[in-house]
Inverse folding.
């Protein structure tokens, strides 16, 4: 929930994590695609989400290779246009999402739910998110989709910032933000 520009957390027992790669302006995508493919970030994403629950919107699902969920993860798509099938689960609202997550976590103890995009899903679920794992690219791209600038959200604080990594001419670092209680 956003009120006067501030993000407030609603009560739920399920704690979400968000995972994203952003540029200096917190851009995350352009024309339905990532701004840039960084093998090290893709490896980080895989390490964190493998064996866990990944929450995304319909457009993010469609942007994945073959429009199919990533292997080795339980995929939940927030959409009013899709129906659950053998590949993924569908939640058509925030309330149904948390009901479904409760069931999935009970059936798969130890799994962690990660919010993986797109921009509207990040925005809707930020009030329920405790940890944001952000890969910051030290560059600006032309973006049309953005993640909330956590450096300007008083409810979050930067708790970890890794060293700069250079790969294929791009410098980036892994950062972790945590909700302040």
């Amino acid at each position: 929930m956003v009120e006067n520009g501030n993000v407030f957390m609603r009560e739920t027992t399920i704690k979400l994590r968000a995972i994203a790669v952003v540029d200096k302006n917190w851009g995350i995508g352009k024309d339905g695609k990532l701004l840039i493919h960084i093998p090290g970030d893709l490896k980080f994403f895989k390490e964190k989400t493998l064996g866990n629950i990944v929450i995304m919107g319909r457009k993010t699902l469609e942007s994945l290779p073959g429009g199919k969920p990533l292997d080795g993860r339980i995929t939940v798509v927030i959409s009013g246009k899709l129906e659950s099938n053998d590949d993924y689960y569908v939640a058509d609202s925030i309330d149904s999402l948390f009901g479904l997550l409760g069931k999935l976590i009970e059936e798969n103890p130890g799994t962690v739910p990660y919010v993986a995009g797109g921009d509207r899903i990040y925005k809707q679920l930020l009030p329920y998110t405790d940890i944001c794992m952000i890969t910051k690219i030290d560059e600006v791209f032309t973006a049309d989709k953005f993640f909330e600038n956590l450096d300007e959200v008083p409810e979050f604080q930067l708790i970890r910032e890794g060293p700069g990594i250079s790969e294929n001419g791009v410098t980036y670092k892994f950062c972790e933000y945590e909700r302040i209680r």
In short: The CA atoms of residues 62 and 68 lie 7 Å apart. The domain at 2-179 is CATH 3.40.430.10 (Dihydrofolate Reductase, subunit A). The chain is about 20% helix and 35% strand.
